């Protein structure tokens, strides 16, 4: 069955009227991977000249991606310049993140292992570069980049979140960190943690909706912390599977107490038997 001319015209008109350019997602993913490999992974030719060539190609690709949105060569050049001016500091922050994983994860034997095999570090890397573009107010691209990490690692960090130094993600699958979250230094987060909003109405889009996590906090797997006015005080430990919607004082231990019963299963009551 042929597609109607009317539908084709509607789709064409919608695309023509779109105020933003569309990114080549394959090219965007390649840019993220190329920058990561240039910063952290060994390559066949590790000379300084080759590194310079790599960065020139990475700069060119970023220019192309941003120019799709701005349509302004001068503005695009400024945006690319700002990003690469910030890159030394981003690199230093990421090395601290990797060292934090090496220090606190007993399974990590070297920084090279962290760079090669740790999804939590890759997600943190993608967050830091997308956050830099976010604060530069580059439209859409930071979200496209962050969703690449989400699809690859199962870790969803909004590029608008603020995260301090030596950030540690262990395992990571299922972590969600919302746009207005503020995280201090030396924070450790395990899989399945949600730092989310209590209210998701559109009217609160420009308000503080997500929690504050102060320095040296540990948040164990499955914990949910919600609300823009919720603060977890420094050096607190949030246990697994807890639900927090109010302030937690510094140096607190928050945990969920459950009861586990072990019985002989040879004579289960009829009400507990089932068939799938």
Automatic annotation (TrEMBL):
Membrane listed as a keyword: no
Keywords: Acyltransferase, Amino-acid biosynthesis, Transferase
Coiled coil (residue ranges): none
Gene3D superfamilies: Hexapeptide repeat proteins (2.160.10.10), serine acetyltransferase, domain 1 (1.10.3130.10)
Protein name: Serine acetyltransferase
């Amino acid at each position: 069955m042929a597609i109607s001319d009317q539908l084709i015209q509607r789709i064409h008109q919608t695309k023509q009227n779109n105020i933003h350019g569309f990114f080549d997602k394959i090219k965007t993913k390649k840019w993220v991977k190329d920058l990561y490999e240039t910063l952290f992974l060994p390559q066949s030719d590790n000379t300084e000249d080759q590194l310079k060539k790599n960065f020139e190609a990475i700069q060119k690709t970023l220019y192309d991606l941003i120019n799709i949105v701005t349509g302004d060569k001068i503005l695009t050049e400024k945006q690319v310049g700002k990003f690469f001016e910030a890159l030394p500091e981003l690199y230093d922050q990421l090395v601290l993140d990797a060292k934090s994983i090496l220090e606190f994860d007993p399974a990590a034997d070297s920084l090279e292992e962290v760079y090669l095999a740790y999804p939590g570090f890759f997600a943190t890397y993608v967050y830091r570069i997308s956050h830099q573009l976010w604060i530069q107010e580059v439209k859409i691209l930071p979200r496209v980049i962050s969703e690449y990490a989400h699809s690859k690692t199962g870790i969803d960090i909004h590029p608008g979140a603020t995260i301090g130094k030596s950030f540690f993600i262990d395992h990571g699958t299922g972590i969600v960190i919302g746009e207005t979250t503020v995280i201090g230094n030396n924070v450790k987060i395990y899989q399945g943690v949600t730092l989310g909003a209590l209210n998701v109405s559109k009217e609160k889009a420009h308000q503080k909706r997500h929690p504050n996590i102060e320095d040296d906090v540990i948040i164990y797997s499955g914990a949910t912390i919600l609300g823009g006015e919720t603060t977890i005080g420094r050096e607190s430990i949030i246990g697994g599977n807890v639900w927090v919607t109010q302030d937690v004082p510094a140096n607190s231990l928050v945990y969920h107490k459950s009861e586990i019963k072990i019985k002989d299963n040879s004579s289960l009551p009829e009400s507990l038997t089932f068939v799938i």
